[in-house]
Design brief:
alpha/beta, Rossmann fold, six-stranded parallel sheet
């Protein structure tokens, strides 16, 4: 089968790979119809390289069941499915305590086992969710990042009528904006340096957009909120600078949830660090998108919201490309030859 394999930093190749086969009774082989490029894929491509050299890459996708093991009963060949790409051991103390997102051996397909930048991929039956009618395949390909953003919100105490600031309007940031509106938030502030991302943020439900080129996000937000700040600030940019700056955005007694991954040291100026203490902030780290019972309410909620039409992600999609153009797509995205939102790849 055709696949994208990551061999090293900036070394991605489109070549042949062995197709998956049924080995365990709970195996499900899925023919991939649509797969998405994640922001973490870009960081690994540019900065980190693969966990395993030459691994079939990718973890966001939807598809159709091709074959199942003899213990699988909830899906059959031909069924449209979504899939949670996260593999939790199910036996460590954290898994047994009902928090599989903290599993000591947590992994994701595409890292240490073959992923979905391919014609076929394989997952355990517990990771495979039947796709309700009414959800388009393109939308279902964004189910995993939607669940990632929702997982972060479930950690917080956000209530209807409150205010949220989202710092960074990439894919996770945009989905965070949409979830904030679905939580009944009164005002959602979207913060980014890119005006095109801010336009997408408005389409996803942001009430106020802030570009911090001329004046800091903190200064502008304080003007909008009469010096109060917001109830919840979401760090979704994943940069060292914004990882510190986000601490100045909540009100006294407010919350911060970190969804971005900075991939570098985070120097924090005294002004920002003191906000934690003086404003008595609550900080959350949000990792992955799973909870108990596995794969968790993040997935069932996202599926229901997509099925009802309330979680509309189509405005995020800017490029639809064949998988064979994936190598060039990664290079183009990082060279910023044009504006890229969500990029979808099609194996066939």
């Amino acid at each position: 089968m055709n696949a994208l394999k990551l061999y090293g930093i900036s070394d991605l190749r489109y070549e042949q790979a062995q197709p998956p086969v049924i080995e365990q009774a709970d195996d499900v082989i899925i023919r991939v119809t649509v797969t998405g490029i994640c922001g973490s894929d870009l960081s690994r491509y540019k900065k980190l390289g693969p966990y395993v050299e030459g691994m079939v890459w990718g973890h966001e996708f939807t598809g159709v069941v091709e074959a199942v093991g003899n213990a699988v009963t909830h899906v059959s060949p031909g069924d449209r499915v979504a899939a949670c790409p996260t593999i939790a051991c199910g036996t460590c103390n954290r898994c047994l305590s009902g928090v599989p997102s903290q599993c000591i051996s947590l992994t994701v397909i595409g890292s240490k086992q073959p992923g979905c930048f391919a014609e076929f991929t394989k997952l355990p039956a517990a990771n495979v969710l039947p796709l309700p009618e009414g959800i388009a395949e393109e939308a279902a390909a964004l189910l995993e990042p939607a669940a990632v953003a929702l997982h972060g919100f479930y950690l917080t105490n956000l209530q209807p009528g409150r205010s949220v600031a989202v710092l960074g309007c990439g894919n996770i940031g945009l989905l965070s904006i949409r979830w904030a509106t679905l939580f009944g938030t009164k005002t959602v502030f979207a913060i980014d340096l890119d005006p095109q991302k801010l336009t997408l943020a408005e389409q996803m439900g942001a009430n106020v957009t802030i570009c911090p080129k001329q004046k800091t996000a903190y200064e502008q937000l304080m003007e909008y909120t009469d010096g109060e700040g917001v109830d919840l600030a979401v760090e979704a940019a994943g940069s060292p600078a914004t990882s510190a700056q986000v601490l100045a955005l909540p009100r006294k007694g407010g919350e911060v949830v970190y969804m971005g991954i900075p991939y570098g040291d985070v120097p924090i100026e005294r002004f920002y660090f003191e906000k934690i203490v003086r404003n008595e902030l609550t900080l959350y780290g949000s990792w992955n998108a799973v909870s108990a019972p596995f794969p968790g309410k993040e997935w069932t909620t996202a599926l229901q919201m997509m099925s009802s039409g309330r979680l509309d992600v189509t405005s995020m999609i800017t490029h639809r490309l064949p998988l064979s153009e994936g190598v060039q797509a990664f290079a183009d995205i990082l060279q910023q030859k044009e504006f890229f939102g969500k990029v979808l790849l099609y194996p066939k």
